[in-house]
Amino acid sequence: GERLREVELEAARALADAEAEAAKAEEDSGEGEPDLAEALLASARAFADEKRLRFEAELGHRALASIAAAPSPSRRAEEAQQRMLFDLEALGFSEDQARQALRRCSTAEACVDWILSQHAD
Fold it and tell me: Which string of DSSP letters, residue by residue, matches the chain?
């Protein structure tokens, strides 16, 4: 948002400067060099457009990089399962008990309740 506005302002300033130079060049050369003034304006416009496009491309690349770096929902679910497995084992339950409970329950508390209910039978 803010940086894009800055880039657009820089491009607008560069274009205004080029228009002023083109007008001065046309004035200095009289009627004989209107092509020079037009070329200067075209060059300034191309520069401004190029600068804006490069900045937009950079924003796109950054957005794609951040999307690629973010863990997928399935990856986050796997990580949560691993944390619960670790927590259940830290509570003294075997890996097998913890895995069985995790297949049936969605929270660590429910897993503990399920494991304890299995021992009660």
Answer: -HHHHHHHHHHHHHHHHHHHHHHHHHHHHGGG-HHHHHHHHHHHHHHHHHHHHHHHHHHHHHHHHHHHHSPPHHHHHHHHHHHHHHHHHHTT--HHHHHHHHHH-SSHHHHHHHHHHHHH-
Average predicted confidence (pLDDT) for the chain: 82
pLDDT in tens, 51-108: 888 888 888 888 888 877 777 778 888 889 999 999 999 999 999 999 999 999 999 9
